[in-house]
Design goal:
With 488 residues, this protein is mainly β. The longest helix is centred in the first third of the chain and has 5 residues. It has one domain: 8 Propeller (Methanol Dehydrogenase, Chain A). It has a four-stranded antiparallel sheet with strand order 4-5-6-7, with no helix packed on it. The protein has a four-stranded antiparallel sheet with strand order 8-9-10-11, with no helix packed on it. A four-stranded antiparallel sheet has the order 12-13-14-15, with no helix packed on it. 1% of the residues lie in helices and 33% in strands. The relative contact order is 0.09. The protein contains one helix and 31 strands. The two termini are 36 Å apart. Strand 10 and strand 11 form a beta hairpin. Belongs to the bacterial PQQ dehydrogenase family. GO terms for molecular function: calcium ion binding; oxidoreductase activity, acting on CH-OH group of donors. InterPro entries: PQQ_b-propeller_rpt (IPR018391), PQQ_MeOH/EtOH_DH (IPR017512), PQQ_rpt_dom (IPR002372), Quinoprotein_ADH-like_sf (IPR011047). Keywords: Calcium, Disulfide bond, Metal-binding, Oxidoreductase, PQQ.
Length: 488
């Protein structure tokens, strides 16, 4: 397969790009542009996909993405077969045609205009020269990665009364065989024929009217589609599901908050666990050798008033290691017990086999929204190392078990309490990376602070249930953002 199939950069532009695009409507100025590797030269004439005449739409030609291909995805660096590229989520590419010496010679080859003005947080899949792109709110399109030509599109109709906290996002699809799997904002999971764009099945995961929604790309594990849930600001009870890829039948569900009589339920005062949040709104990772799925959980609810949910609030702000066949929790690690700052632990877990203190470890690397970086043993959940990687004022540090040692007086108050990091976190949903060449972990970091407030609030189904909020006392340009490299 030629390297012209390899996609090396994806960017989003919210402005006009060329004269040929200036006549598009204001609601259609989000552009997806790609820079493919080229034989012999790294430059090419910038060309809109619309400039080249379209032939009769044909079925996209690609090889079926078997489970075996997904497990060995690292051996196909010219493809991007899942949300994080591989099950280890390292986002490391072995491609080397573009480097620091010639990257300035790249020019745009084509542009595909996403016809919505919503946020663009998707990660396209690339399979044998075919690109699958999701668009807000819950649509997917197949295009030729060489030219930008559209093969087909699937538009999912969402109801007008959905409940969402943070934008009409869709972050991508999963692919198994010749079937795409996509989450929808009204908390459905759909299967789509990757060759035709036809709907194969549609299952209701949860009731959107109660505040449930879905934004994350699913994860394929064997013959199952693993998927989480969003809605942590609406008093939901988070969970992780597995569905049969062929039929859409629910195989298992693991709740992120233990029910009555289950271990960990006593970390919630009264019945607060029933509306405790712990949404699972981003994609996890998988270790095929250990047969463990690793999935992060979000903040407890209400977000900023912990008075109504005393205790550690398991398994909010945690990583869960689940048996890939049954969904049973093998181990857990809680990053922020009794979180009152909305420091969701939904970041992408990176799996890497590295030496730590002279001992080879199957490690999990995690840059948390709370401002601390963690190295865990992914076989057992043992805390190995931890340190702050961004400005934070809420904790003195981590103890020997990785539990934060809190600074007194940093909880949200009725008058307001200034704390770092802010609500957006030291990092957020944006994916980190690990280099097999340098052995370093790379993450986008934000050094900011915000005033946190709490307020009294009763739960009402389907209504926002946050118990407070926050405000910045300084303009955003007073803070510092960076890409940081961390030695795990």
């Amino acid at each position: 397969m030629s390297r012209i199939h390899a996609i090396t950069a994806i960017c989003y532009l919210r402005s006009t790009l060329t004269a040929s695009l200036r006549n598009r409507s204001a609601g259609a100025r989000t552009l997806l542009c790609v820079l493919p590797f080229l034989f012999g030269t790294l430059t090419a004439r910038a060309q809109s996909a619309a400039e080249e005449p379209f032939s009769t739409v044909i079925t996209p030609d690609f090889g079926a993405v078997t489970w075996e291909r997904l497990v060995a995805a690292e051996s196909e660096p010219h493809n991007w077969l899942s949300y994080s590229g591989t099950h280890s989520s390292q986002r490391f590419s072995k491609l080397d045609a573009v480097n620091r010496y010639n990257v300035a010679q790249l020019e745009m080859k084509w542009a595909y205009q996403i016809p919505v003005i919503d946020r663009a947080e998707t990660v396209p899949l690339v399979v044998d020269g075919i690109m699958f792109i999701t668009e807000a709110p819950s649509n997917v399109v197949a295009v030729d990665a060489r030219t930008g030509r559209e093969y087909w599109r699937f538009d999912y109709q969402i109801p007008d009364d959905i409940r969402i906290c943070c934008g009409r996002n869709n972050r991508g699809v999963a692919l198994l065989g010749e079937t795409l799997f996509m989450s929808t904002l009204d908390a459905h999971l759909v299967a789509i024929d990757a060759r035709t764009g036809n709907l194969l099945w549609d299952v209701t995961v949860a009731d959107y009217k109660a505040g449930y929604s879905k934004t994350a790309a699913p994860l394929i594990v064997k013959d199952k589609v693993i998927t989480g849930i969003a809605g942590g600001e609406y008093g939901i009870r988070g969970f992780i599901d597995a569905y049969d890829a062929k039929t859409g039948e629910l195989a298992w569900r693991t709740y992120a908050i233990p029910g009555e009589g289950e271990p960990g339920n006593d970390t919630w005062s009264g019945d607060s666990w029933k509306t405790g949040g712990a949404a699972t709104w981003l994609t996890g990772s998988y270790d095929a050798d250990l047969n463990l799925i690793y999935w992060g959980t979000g903040n407890p609810g209400p977000d900023w008033n912990g008075d109504v949910r005393l205790g550690d609030n398991l398994y909010s702000d945690s990583v869960l290691a689940l048996n890939g066949d049954t969904g049973k929790i093998d181990w857990h690690f809680q990053f922020t017990p009794h979180d009152v700052h909305d420091y969701d632990s939904i970041q992408i877990p990176i799996l890497a086999d590295i030496a730590i203190d002279g001992r080879d470890r199957k490690a999990m690397l995690w840059a948390n929204r709370n401002g601390f970086f963690y190295t865990l043993d992914r076989s057992t959940g043992e805390f190995l190392k931890g340190k702050a990687y961004a400005t934070q004022t809420w904790a003195q540090g981590l103890d020997a078990a990785g539990r934060p040692v809190r600074v007194a007086g940093m909880a949200p108050s009725y008058e307001g309490t200034l704390v770092a990091p802010p609500i957006v976190g030291a990092t957020n949903w944006y994916s980190p990376a690990f280099s097999q060449q340098t052995g370093l972990f790379y993450v986008t970091a934000f050094d900011g602070e915000q005033e946190f407030f709490k307020r009294d609030q009763d739960y009402e189904e389907g209504e926002s249930f946050t118990g407070g909020g926050g405000r910045y006392l300084k303009p955003m340009d007073a803070f510092h953002s960076a890409i940081r490299a961390i030695d795990p």
